[in-house]
Amino acid sequence: MFPFRFSKASDEQAALSAAASGARYVAGGTTLVDLMRETVERPEAVVDINALPYRDIDVQPGRLRVGSLVRMAEIAAHPGVREQFPMIKQALELSASAQLRNSASIGGNLLQRTRCLYFRDVTAACNRRTPGAGCAAIGGRNRTHAILGTSDSCAATHASDVAVALTALDATVIARDSNGESRIALSEFYLRPGTTPDRENTLRPGELITAVEVTVGPEARRSGYLKVRDRESYEFALTSAAVALDIAGGRIRTARVAVGGVGTVPWRLQSVERALAGQAPSAELWRTAAAIAADGAQPLSENGFKVELIKRTVERQLSTIGALP
Question: How far are the Cα atoms of 34, 69, 163, 319 from residue 25, in angstroms, in the given order?
């Protein structure tokens, strides 16, 4: 590792002041510390923000608000989250090992960086790490890479599981800097790579996530998260599907569907949602709606299997959630 300055912020203003001077925020450290150890990230200063008061889980009629420093394990274990948002609970529990879930904050999870092997290899060409260097994955080993939202500059897959569930539920990120508070829809928070893959989200330098909010809809209780991976534990998704359905009177009133493991950002399937709305649940409906889940996909040399796999993943999860009482 390399030398850097370390400090602890006693309050929000101290954290913002440190960031204005170029410091990076650290909470659980499960991403940043790894990247610093591998010299992928080399901040000159790091500020510990664990003393900040962003640790509440507030479940109200019509709204869930989670402070950005709440640990993943705490959220998954919260009775209100387990009852009203099974999709979020499942995505968190499938995200990582128990040790990591006990350490990682929800804010840090949303900001975790890609698991692309070329991004983490400082000897390899990576536009996300070094703008203009090229993308070794385009013509290299790309089995785990994205098929949706890619560009000639980057095909790295977004790593977060819970971000997929939160995208399906139209979550909002609450952030703060010296100019005050801002609210950002999670669907607009993440940026596709385009020609600037080093810009991964819309946060301004020094801006601090303070909370995440989710509106409670009738579909949230009938929801779930399915993760398909090479091995059962501690592995990133090849594909995943977050599905929430509001079914009443034998018809689907509202559908929310997002997928992971296949996009450069958490990928909302609005075309699938439209195909489901107003329809009577059936095996045929799940099959026909899932058939368009990969529309627009641009597979690379080794990940073409994801086109069919994401369709099957969505169909399976639609069938599972549609069968819930």
Answer: 14, 11, 20, 41
Q: How many CB atoms lie within 10 A of CB 149?
A: 23
Which residues lie closer than 8 Å to 249 by C-beta, 6 or more apart? none
Strands 5-8 and 45-48 come out as parallel
* Contact partners, residue 325, CB within 8 Å, separation at least 6: none
In whole angstroms, what separates CA 262 from the centre of its chain? Answer: 12
Please state the rounded mean pLDDT for residues 175-188: 96
Dihedral angle of Cα 108, 53, 92, 318, to the nearest 10 degrees: -100
**How far is it, in rounded angstroms, from Cα 243 to Cα 251?**
16
Angle (deg, nearest 10), helices 305-322 and 283-290? 150
Residue 23 is predicted with a pLDDT of 95
Considering the entire predicted model, what is its pTM?
A: 0.97
- Report pLDDT digits (tens) over 224-279: 999 999 998 778 999 999 999 999 999 999 999 999 999 999 999 999 999 999 99
Predicted pLDDT at 96? 87
Scan for tokens 């949303």, then name that residue.
Answer: 110
Output the pLDDT for position 61: 85
Please tell me whether residue 131 adopts helix, strand or coil conformation. Answer: coil
The mean pLDDT value of the chain amounts to 96
Domains and CATH numbers, the chain: 5-48 (3.30.43), 223-322 (3.30.390.50)
| Cβ burial 73-109 (10 Å sphere, 16+ → b, else e) | bbbbebeebeebbbbbbbbbbbbbeeebbebbbbbbb
Question: What pLDDT, on the 0 to 100 scale, is given for residue 97?
Answer: 87
d(CA 221, CA 51): 33
